[in-house]
């Protein structure tokens, strides 16, 4: 069963472009993971400092492998001083249809 989630990140003042660049680089790495089915980054139309990332992995094992990647760990450490709350807010989803 696929593992789907979304994450939101709010850039601190003056950090939007830095965060955008980090997310762009992360997307390249995550999309190359064998279990990644979707990794899409958006900004909120009414607030470009708020980023929304939609992710789907083949299954729980693929998600676990994603969480163990070095590029993911480096990203999460790097964004600490750049985003509100020091990290992303993650919401897991279950498909309805």
UniProtKB/TrEMBL annotation:
It comes from the Bacteria. InterPro entries: ABM_dom (IPR007138), AI-2_Isomerase_LsrG (IPR050744), Dimeric_a/b-barrel (IPR011008). SUPFAM superfamilies: Dimeric alpha+beta barrel. Pfam families: ABM (PF03992). Transmembrane segments: none annotated. Residues 3-92 form the ABM domain. Keywords: Monooxygenase, Oxidoreductase. One of its GO terms (molecular function) is monooxygenase activity. This is Antibiotic biosynthesis monooxygenase. The lineage of its organism: Bacteria, Pseudomonadati, Pseudomonadota, Alphaproteobacteria, Acetobacterales.
């Amino acid at each position: 069963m696929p593992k789907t989630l979304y994450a939101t990140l709010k850039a601190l003042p003056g950090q939007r472009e830095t965060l955008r660049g980090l997310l762009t680089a992360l997307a390249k790495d995550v999309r190359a993971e064998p279990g990644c089915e979707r990794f899409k980054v958006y900004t909120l139309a009414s607030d470009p400092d708020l980023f929304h990332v939609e992710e789907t992995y083949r299954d729980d094992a693929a998600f676990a492998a994603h969480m163990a990647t070095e590029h993911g760990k480096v990203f999460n450490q790097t964004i600490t001083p750049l985003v509100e709350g020091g990290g992303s807010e993650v919401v897991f989803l279950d498909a309805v249809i």
